[in-house]
Design goal:
The complex is a heterodimer of chains A (307) and B (374). Chain A is mainly alpha-helical. Helices cover 73% and strands 3% of the residues of chain A. Chain B has a two-stranded antiparallel ribbon with strand order 1-2. Chain B has a domain of 244 residues. Chain B has 16 helices and 4 strands. Classes of the chains: A mainly alpha (307), B mainly alpha (374). The interface between A and B is large, with 52 and 56 residues.
């Protein structure tokens, strides 16, 4: 039972990170039908930026939480600018090109960012400074630390804020309209280019937030760290029904839970033949199963239909 | 009636035949020239030829049938590990029962392994294809990607409880190929020319690439090829025309995977060593990039794309020694190669969204818009 609660907590924390990244994938897909392969790398850049800022300011005597906040803001700004530029240079000129063309540039951007990060930050993994108290709280035999609690709270608040943005504000309405039909939206006075840029900027901010949380939780950063969370988050987005915001959140959390519980119990279930090193394939096995039974994902279609 | 169709493919003119012969001679003597500058250059060409084979196979799936496969490298891995297992000491070292059966060690001949590898990869392709038939574009992409990762995770971890793949350390001491008693790992002297191992492999790879091109060319013009393209352009319409979309999509997966399996077998014997690292998602992405950069569904384009992405960064990295010195070693050769591939993927797509040498007759070589459900 203790294992169960512990894995539940781990799964929720992991799932929160996936959900934040998955939202970025799903919003971009909902509007321009593009799998933004570079999204995981944006997360990595966010984590690296925050690491740099936190390390540089480490001796300034500022309290840990303030340091974390400063580094988070820096990461969000850097990522937002980065994603804005990526969209402008690599995706916008290809808006009317064959569908695979922007996908290839997205993969190119992903490889480019990873390589540049490798050149700038060197390949060795770097320990992320401990900014928040690490004393764990005990919940019925399981433990949770401040960082993890913070991750859950911040994710919940961010998701609520995003829902408000999409459903209640003018920008959100314009985004939904553009997702529904860019041409008609333009006739109604929406500027699709501005809306698409805004979508990329919001997605980047979410990815930066996820990157900082991921780094703080796992305690190390590296140029290749964006790959797996990016891949899993994409899986989560598809799992929940790509283009659908609620689906991305649900998919992310479920995926995190499946992975954590799967990794916790696979050894017991298979009598020790398969160990937790197979954690990474649960996501895909579940995904294949779900898509075979329900090809459109858990929550169906697009941002405009539901959100 | 058949003649009416054939009129378009009129016998090649003299000029065309001349170009063809020149190209053939050029390809035949290319390694002999390249080896004067060192075997490393021939090695680069060999690797590029393997990528051409892979790109041709993926082109069947992505280019003809329009199914975006991001896990193609899995089939390559299947072929490579098959040969690694049956032609190296890995199994006899770890399983006494097998060692007892083959007292001289396990050395399966290439004639057996090549078709078996092709068939096995084909079957794996069908297995992957079967549950994904209902999925549309992007869902298919992620499922195939996940499949590729699953295979890689298994290759990395199948050393417990039984050591089958030797985990991340990979399998070494794989036999080299020998054809008709012609051991490809040895140096041969023919008419005063010394032919090193890499050049032997060059001729084998070249022969298989030519065979692959012929197969693809014939497929493209066959009933099957036209059906694939119909599915690519509009699946519902294709179905309405009486095309069995399910079987044909499965066939595309199977055919494409076969190419991957053959390339994998060749790769294992050429390198003499395989490890899961060679079969990462990056490889799949690279192969997709080759197909799309060259020109989706157009054989010459695909070949050019593969050669360009496989060989050019390697060539440049020999030229770029000074750059490395300038940046204090931060830009080493492999980083530079990655950087160049990334820039090529972005730059070429921006300049030529339909690829370097796109198919001429089809205005739209890929579905321009994903079908959006109402």
């Amino acid at each position: 039972m203790d294992t169960f609660i512990q894995q539940l907590i781990n799964g929720l924390v992991l799932g929160s990170v996936y959900a934040l990244v998955a939202l970025g994938y799903t919003m971009v897909y909902g509007i321009i039908n593009l799998i933004n392969f570079a999204h995981g790398e944006v997360l990595m850049v966010g984590a690296m930026t925050s690491w740099t800022v936190a390390t540089v300011l480490a001796d300034s005597g500022l309290p840990g939480w303030l340091l974390m906040l400063i580094s988070l803001v820096a990461a969000i700004v850097v990522c937002a600018v980065l994603n804005f530029v990526i969209e402008k240079i690599a995706y916008r000129p290809l808006r009317n090109a064959p569908r695979l063309a922007p996908l290839i540039t997205a993969m190119g951007v992903s490889l480019l960012l990873q390589t540049l990060a490798l050149i700038i930050w060197k390949p060795n993994p770097k320990p992320y400074p401990i900014l928040l108290p690490v004393e764990p709280f005990h919940i019925g035999g399981a433990v949770i630390n401040t960082t993890q609690i913070l991750i859950l709270v911040v994710t919940a608040l961010t998701l609520a804020g995003l829902m408000f943005l999409i459903n209640r504000t003018n920008l959100g309405r314009a985004m939904r309209a553009t997702a529904e039909n860019p041409r008609v939206a333009e006739l109604m006075g929406v500027k699709p280019d501005v809306i698409i840029s805004a979508t990329f900027v919001i997605g980047a901010a979410l990815a930066a937030l996820a990157g900082v949380m991921y780094a703080a939780n796992y305690g190390s950063v590296q140029h290749s760290m964006g790959f797996l969370p990016g891949l899993k988050a994409f899986t989560a987005a598809v799992f929940g029904g790509i283009g659908n915001l609620a689906g991305a959140m649900l998919g992310g959390v479920l995926l995190g839970l499946i992975e954590a519980l799967g990794a916790g119990y696979i050894g017991v279930l298979t009598g020790g033949v398969l160990g937790s090193q197979y954690q990474d394939i649960f996501a895909f096995i579940v995904l294949i199963a779900v898509l075979t039974l329900r090809p459109q994902g858990l929550l169906g279609e697009r941002v405009a239909d539901r959100a | 009636m058949h003649e009416d169709i054939r009129v378009k493919n009129s016998p090649p003119s003299r000029a065309k035949l001349g170009v063809f012969l020149l190209a053939a001679i050029g390809l035949l003597i290319l390694p002999l020239i390249a080896q004067q500058f060192g075997n490393a250059w021939v090695r680069i060409i060999d690797t590029a030829l393997l990528y051409v084979l892979l790109a041709l196979g993926l082109n069947i799936v992505v280019g003809y049938a329009g199914l975006l496969d991001l896990g193609y490298v899995a089939f390559y891995a299947v072929g490579a590990y098959l040969f690694a297992l049956v032609a190296s000491p890995q199994l006899t070292d770890n399983f006494p029962a097998i060692a007892a059966m083959f007292p001289d060690g396990l050395h399966a001949p290439i004639w057996v392994v090549l078709p078996v590898g092709a068939a096995l990869a084909g079957v794996v392709g069908l297995l992957l294809g079967a549950p994904t038939l209902k999925l549309r574009g992007d869902y298919l992409a992620i499922v195939t990607l996940g499949f590729g990762e699953i295979i890689r995770v298994f290759l990395t971890n199948l050393e417990q409880p039984y050591n089958i793949t030797n985990g991340p350390r990979g399998i070494g001491q794989i036999d080299s190929l020998s054809l008709f008693g012609w051991d490809m790992a040895k140096k041969w002297d023919l008419f005063g020319l010394s032919i090193p191992s890499v050049t032997n492999y060059y001729y084998l790879f070249l022969a298989l690439v030519v065979l692959g091109v012929v197969i693809c060319y014939r497929l493209e013009r066959s009933r099957i090829g036209r059906a694939w393209m119909a599915i690519r352009e509009d699946e519902v319409a294709a179905k309405a025309m009486g095309i069995n979309t399910r079987n044909l999509k499965l066939l595309a997966f199977g055919m494409g995977a076969t190419f991957g399996g053959v390339a994998g077998v060749l790769f294992a014997s050429f390198q003499g060593f395989v490890s899961p690292e060679s079969f990462s998602l990056h490889e799949s992405v690279l192969i997709v990039a080759m197909v799309v950069l060259g020109g989706l569904g157009h054989i010459p384009g695909v070949v050019i794309g593969a050669l360009l992405l496989a060989a050019l960064p390697e060539v440049l990295r020999y030229v770029a020694g000074p750059l490395q010195a300038m940046t204090g070693g931060r830009l080493d050769a492999s980083i530079l190669r990655q950087l160049l591939i990334a820039l090529a993927m972005i730059g070429i797509m921006l300049a030529r969204p339909r690829g370097l040498w796109p198919a001429p007759e089809h205005g739209r070589s890929a579905p321009s818009q994903a079908p959006r459900s109402p």
